Amino acid sequence: MMKIIPLVTLFLVILIAGCIQLQVPEKPATSDVPVQSLPTEEPATAPVITEPVAQPKPVSPLPAAQTSATVTPTGTKIVLPEPVYHLTMDTETSEDEKIISYSKGASKTTKLLGKINNAWNFDGSNDIVILTDKRLQSLNEFTIVLWLKPGDLLKRAHILWQGDEDKETRAENAGNGWGPHQEMHLSLGDEIGMSNYRINKLTFYVGDDKHNLKVSTEMNTREWQHIAIIVRNANTKPTAELVIDTVSRGTATASSAIKRDKWGTLRFGTAGRAGQPGDSDRDFRGSIDEFAIYDRALTSNELAKLCLRQNAGKTCNE
């Protein structure tokens, strides 16, 4: 009887172990359900992770868009300075405090197109525009830039002028462009003596009868031309350079400062007075557009870039 009990006990142990083994396969069956769902969830989240990484790539064209606006055809990046004074010749009036007055005849080219939009047109008979700006009287360095379209190359005429107006004596002693008075002007023709001048010339002059700078060059076309006047060291040993369509046409130097203490306001179309008797033909005939003053000497690269911007992407010397 004692031998039978151990056998029964052994049988029960084997039976229980077999039942346990039979139940073990059921657990993987239940655990397979979440295991199979994991692969289906990972593909759903994978695009969310990769898409933000791919999105920054389209940003790369931005430098190309910027270079088209700031890089010249030769690949040189130029950032132009802002002018300290700018007349578009499109909308300026006495209300914006840039213009004192238009005289009779001076008008905007509402019918005649300018280089960019409208321009100022002068018919050569008492057409004057007087400005409020006097900064050229004190700047040690400056660059004057404008577009010019002459209407007559066979007479001397003042395109722009600033100097001794001498209002107290009704301009009897005011500068006429070529006298002893303090003045600055950009003019057609080249005065080489009393009632003696050369035609087909563009001349820049600044100074008086003792100390002055003059640069004169050929002017043989009545088409639009880009003009730049660069003055350096006006208060010490000044130099002046005349540039047409980005090409330097000459320089001048002086050993002493240019006196400007008697200068009045800048004007277009004529001088402070007509000049000697019989010389009243100095009123300008033609058009002016995009006049600007910079408070430093612009470089040749900057002038080239400015031409590209204002000349529909073309160089001015083509």
What descriptive keywords fit this protein?
alpha+beta, Jelly Rolls, 30% strand, eight-stranded antiparallel sheet, 318 residues, single chain
Summarize the structure.
With 318 residues, the chain is of the alpha+beta class.
Summarize the structure in words.
With 318 residues, the protein is of the alpha+beta class. It folds into two domains: 4-54; 81-310, Jelly Rolls, CATH 2.60.120.200. Helix content is 22%, strand content 30%. It is built from four helices and 15 strands. It has helices spanning 4-23, 26-54, 62-70, 300-310; strands spanning 85-87, 99-102, 107-108, 120-123, 129-131, 142-150, 157-163, 183-193, 196-207, 212-218, 225-232, 239-244, 247-253, 267-268, 285-294. The strands form two sheets. Strands 1, 3, 4, 6, 11, 12, 13 and 15 form an eight-stranded antiparallel sheet that branches. A seven-stranded antiparallel sheet has the order 2-5-14-7-8-9-10, with no helix packed on it. A hairpin with a 2-residue loop joins β12 and β13 (247-253). The protein is globular.
